[in-house]
Amino acid sequence: MTIRYARKKQISEGRPMADINVTPLVDVVLVLLIIFMVTAPMLQMGIDVNLPKAKSQNVDVTEEKVVLTIDGAKGIFVNKTKIPLAELGLRLEGVFADRSERELYLRADRTVPYGFVVEVMAEIRKAGIDKLGMITEPPEEIK
What we know:
- By secondary structure, the protein is of the alpha/beta class.
- The protein has a domain at 66-134: 2-Layer Sandwich (Nucleotidyltransferase, domain 5), CATH 3.30.420.270.
- It is built from three helices and five strands; from the N terminus they run H-E-E-E-H-E-H-E.
- The chain has helices spanning 23-44, 88-95, 114-126, and strands spanning 66-70, 76-78, 81-83, 103-108, 131-134.
- Helix 3 (114-126) links the parallel strand 4 and strand 5 (131-134).
- The radius of gyration is 28 Å and the shape is elongated.
- The N and C termini lie far apart (81 Å).
- It is found in: Cell inner membrane; Cell membrane.
- InterPro entries: ExbD.
- It is a single-pass type II membrane protein.
- This is Cell division and transport-associated protein TolR.
- GO terms for molecular function: transmembrane transporter activity.
């Protein structure tokens, strides 16, 4: 008894293979999707601040904008760089020296005394900042 096998047609007949293997592409895309899903919430993180809740218009604060943050321990940060209050005016003048629009966003912890926030705002005004925006959290809606 003789067993004969049908010989498969070989692909290497001088023409390129027409099938594209998309499995590695799908694997790479899924890994990138997972990476972006994990890292996207961390981009807005930085200095932990309990913002006050208030109804206001939504403003898109991107990395190009200058954000001044006051944490619960009265620490002052300009774009994640800690600065003492005495040097704030000089540092802000340096940051805005090459910018045409002098716009600053202020994030202050709700536990910081109002008087300290006013002192910081006075230093901001002395530095020649034209526009000052306050960042808050939207209030929780009652269901």
